[in-house]
Design goal:
single chain, alpha+beta, Aminopeptidase, 6 helices
Length: 235
C-alpha cells in the first residue's frame, strides 16, 4: 500500500468533494458551494471564510435555511442561528495490504443497493439514525447492504470524495440483526472496493459512539484528528 499522501485534502473534505468528484451534484454562488437538495445538506465556503463567503452561502441557501458546515472550523457572523454542535473524530484506514476484491465480491450476502433500494434504505436509517441520509444520498457513491427475509437489515455507503480518498458512511444495522458481524462485513467489503480503485478509505464518527470507534480500530482505522461538527440556520 502506498504511503499516506494528499492528506491535506481531508482538512476540507466537503469543499474538496464539491469542487471535484461531486461537482455534478453541487450548486455554487461566489465563494460558497453546497450539495443539491435531496443529496446532502453539507456546505462549504472558501478558505478565507470571510463575511463575503458567508454572505454568498446565505444567498445560495436562502433565508432561514439549514447550513450543515460539517467540520469547518470557521464561525459564521453573529446573526446566523446555531442549530447543533457535535464532537467527533476523523479516522483514516492505515491497512498495509490490498484486500482481495474478488473474494469480497463473491460474498452472496453482500448486495449492491441502487435507486430501487431507497425506500428500504430510508426505512433503515429512520430506525437506526446513523447520520444525515436523504432520498438522493445514494448518488454520492456505492452503497452495499445485507437483507434478511427480504428486508434490508444492514448497510454501508460512500459519501465524501476528496481527491484520493473516499469516506465510508451510513454504517447501520437494524436492532434485531445486531451481533452478527454485519457492520464489519460490509465495511470490509467497501474498503476492498475503495482500495481496489486506488483510493484510501476514511470516515467520521461521533466521539460518544465508543462502540463504533472500537469497531473501526479493529478494522484498521486510526484517528487522524478530532473535529467539531456544526450546523447553523441562515439569517
Amino acid at each position: 500500500m502506498r504511503g499516506l499522501r494528499d492528506v491535506v485534502a481531508l482538512d476540507d473534505p466537503v469543499g474538496e468533494s464539491l469542487r471535484g468528484h461531486h461537482g455534478h451534484l453541487s450548486r455554487r454562488l461566489g465563494r460558497a458551494v453546497t450539495y443539491l437538495p435531496g443529496v446532502a445538506t453539507f456546505s462549504a465556503i472558501s478558505a478565507e471564510a470571510d463575511s463575503a463567503g458567508w454572505g454568498d452561502l446565505a444567498r445560495l441557501l436562502g433565508r432561514g435555511e439549514f447550513a450543515d458546515m460539517f467540520s469547518c472550523p470557521a464561525m459564521p457572523p453573529s446573526d446566523w442561528e446555531p442549530v447543533f454542535v457535535l464532537e467527533g473524530r476523523q479516522m483514516i484506514w492505515t491497512g498495509d495490504s490490498r484486500p482481495d476484491v474478488s473474494r469480497v465480491e463473491l460474498d452472496p450476502a453482500v448486495i449492491q443497493l441502487g435507486a430501487g433500494s431507497v425506500p428500504g434504505m430510508l426505512g433503515l436509517v429512520e430506525r437506526t439514525r446513523p447520520g444525515p441520509f436523504w432520498p438522493r444520498t445514494h448518488e454520492l457513491g456505492t452503497y452495499l447492504g445485507i437483507r434478511d427475509g427480504g428486508s434490508l437489515v444492514a448497510m454501508v455507503g460512500e459519501r465524501l470524495r476528496p481527491p484520493g480518498w473516499t469516506e465510508i458512511s451510513a454504517v447501520c444495522t437494524a436492532p434485531e440483526a445486531r451481533g452478527r458481524g454485519h457492520a464489519a462485513r460490509l465495511v470490509r467489503a467497501l474498503i476492498a472496493r475503495i482500495v481496489g480503485r486506488g483510493e484510501r478509505p476514511f470516515l467520521h464518527v461521533a466521539e460518544a459512539n465508543t462502540g463504533a470507534i472500537a469497531l473501526y480500530e479493529r478494522l484498521g482505522f486510526e484517528t487522524r484528528k478530532h473535529v467539531t461538527f456544526r450546523g447553523f440556520r441562515t439569517p
